[in-house]
Specification:
single chain, alpha/beta, 10 helices, 7 strands, binds zinc ion
């Protein structure tokens, strides 16, 4: 399990600020978010300690404990106003003013719909004009991750058929892939953007369009960031990063993904679109 404990993620973010100075600002922001998420996760664990285990055949997103979640939303929005870059901080301020009905709407809108956040990258660059819809979804995503992770950890183990391209627990997209050594080769798995569940995946297969012909699937590496590769599909022009733990055992996949934005730049310059935008909007 390489999603890492919250502490491991925070430690890795702090560590990488000096390794990748270009990512320092984003990583410091992420470390503040993860610190909030860690304490929120502990509160959720305490509050739901005696809740019965969720059966494996129920979709994770059938659950939504608004009584537990909503009272914590205002302090989350305050934190974002304090530490986030400008368009997001402003979206948090606007949402904070709207009150509980709007907070509930933002949470439900993200939780019950396909949590796709494709357009966030553009909104991150500009001041939002359309009621910050996508930024509200980004806020809900960050806020709900600890809850989703708790649900993923506290359910019965499910048997998964095949290698699905979306999370077998909650149906969300993968945020990053992980490579580990196995025999002579490497074993690949995907990490869920929402509940952080990790599931086995085929090495040559596009999670966006199902392409499996080898010539269509390539990857790119740069020697400066040798443990992170960009897996691209030349059929649908989508990419996803893979963190190679055989080259860097200390990596924490979700954090190393955030820190390596030059690879995102490279991919976009070459006409590839990211399968799933990350928390920093890249
Ligand atoms: Zn999931
Ligand atoms: Zn594809």
């Amino acid at each position: 399990m390489n999603r890492g404990s919250w502490d491991a993620r925070i430690r890795r973010a702090n560590e990488l600020t000096s390794v990748y100075p270009f990512a320092a600002e984003g990583l410091r922001f992420y470390a503040r978010l993860a610190t909030f998420q860690k304490s929120f996760h502990e509160e959720i664990q305490k509050a739901l300690a005696h809740a019965p285990k969720i059966s494996a055949d129920r979709p994770l997103r059938d659950e939504l404990d608004l009584f537990l979640l909503l009272p914590n939303f205002p302090r989350f929005l305050s934190l974002i106003q304090e530490v986030a870059p400008e368009p997001l901080a402003q979206a948090a301020a606007e949402l904070a003013e709207k009150g509980p009905a709007a907070w509930q709407h933002a949470i439900e809108d993200f939780w019950y719909r396909d949590p796709e956040l494709a357009a966030i990258g553009e909104e991150f660059e500009t001041i939002p004009t359309d009621g910050s819809h996508n930024l509200n979804r980004l806020l809900a995503w960050i806020f709900l991750q600890p809850y989703a992770e708790h649900l993923a950890n506290s359910r019965e183990t499910a048997t998964v058929n095949g290698t699905p391209s979306t999370c077998p627990l909650c149906g969300s997209k993968p945020i990053v892939a992980v490579l580990r050594s196995e025999g002579d080769g490497a074993k690949k798995s995907l990490v869920c953007m929402l509940c952080a569940h990790e599931w086995a995946f085929r090495r040559i297969y596009c999670p966006a369009c199902g392409e499996e012909r080898e010539p269509q699937m390539a990857y790119y590496l740069t020697p400066e960031i040798a443990h992170v590769r960009v897996d691209v599909c030349d059929t649908c022009h989508t990419y996803l990063k893979s963190i190679d733990l055989t080259k860097m055992g200390l990596a924490v996949a979700v954090v190393d993904e955030l820190a390596t934005m030059p690879l995102d730049l490279w991919a976009r310059e070459h006409g590839y679109e990211k399968l799933q935008i990350n928390l920093l909007g890249t």
